[in-house]
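Researcher: Last one for today. Full complex below.
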Amino acid sequence: DTEVTQTPKHLVMGMTNKKSLKCEQHMGHRAMYWYKQKAKKPPELMFVYSYEKLSINESVPSRFSPECPNSSLLNLHLHALQPEDSALYLCASSQVALGGNEQFFGPGTRLTVL
Amino acid sequence: AQSVTQLDSQVPVFEEAPVELRCNYSSSVSVYLFWYVQYPNQGLQLLLKYLSGSTLVKGINGFEAEFNKSQTSFHLRKPSVHISDTAEYFCAVRTLSSNTGKLIFGQGTTLQVKP
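Model: Here's the assembly. Have a good evening.
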């Protein structure tokens, strides 16, 4: 199983809502990532978890709150988002967060903030 | 710091023609190199990667790339494209010493295959 799954596929939320994105992998990977991708742009790294611990936060606003409950799951909690946060949110995983390890990407959650 | 430049934002090509998507990188240390493809409304899929060894790397779907250290390039090629190759292609690098997994992406090249 070389699949990273993400739910939901689409999400529409108001600026006062609280919602969560979910990512799951069963490849035994110990590194998981959140990326944000705007249209016609490359993915931008947001967070990296390594062995269930947050190892990178790329100066992401606190309205985005990541959580890694176990080695297979990664959540992204959203609160008080702005319209400019509308984007495709991609989750990825790799064996470990080292050098040449391939990152496997999920299909993404397309988020629209009204 | 590392950076990646994809020299063409869009590459139109007719079906069954050859194609080359260009990628140059800048880094003061050794890097790993990757090409990813993103089909519409999907995530990224790894086409191929260069870690070490032979500078000619073969990937999935008939793609290959050549690592040229002196020119700091990693161009992607396919001898004969199909309509289904229409997608966004991203070149990316990561330093050998990285323990964060951080990929540095280029801005992407849109490959448009015409019938």
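The mean pLDDT of chain A is 94. The CA atoms of residues 53 and 68 of chain A lie 7 Å apart.
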